[in-house]
Amino acid sequence: MNALDELTESFSRLPGIGKKSAARIANYILKADRTYVAKFASELATLQDKIKPCSICGTWTETDPCPICSNPMRDRTVICVVEQPQDVQTLEAFHEYNGLFHVLGGVISPLDGIGPEQLAIAPLIKRVQEGGVQEVIIATNPTVDGDVTALYVQRLLSAQTGVKVTRLASGLPVGGDLEYADKLTIARSFRGRVSL
Q: How far apart are CA 156 and CA 150, in angstroms?
């Protein structure tokens, strides 16, 4: 195996990158300007040294606490609970939410050996118990594991804090066709319907 094959293999291990895409990326890098390649390699080599999880919410940050947690203009009465740090970036891109976040670090998945103790649920309970939080929005993915996690967190929060717990609505996307929707999406759309 030569260096190009090794690089292609490394890229193919990234999520969403197949063998063909990995080969295209490796060949692009081989033909690219040396300055760009050196800068790219340096950024990649130092990424894990520069970016760490926020000690409060768990999202990726260069400063601790992160800019969201340290922003006094954020609504501190609401915490949105997400699975992964990249979910914070996704929700922030829409500019529809101005509260705080909490990253669980995954979902409860017994088949993968992940239980509640492997997730950042205890720090969430502690944050809510410290006071000031009036609502926790659970924004886990609408999957079986995401739903199990949401239910578990909701029950814990209700039992230990009494805070209002909500879940992001799910259903049909704007511009979506009914014929392409699955049964679970249709069911959630009916349950989450609103008055016009």
A: 10
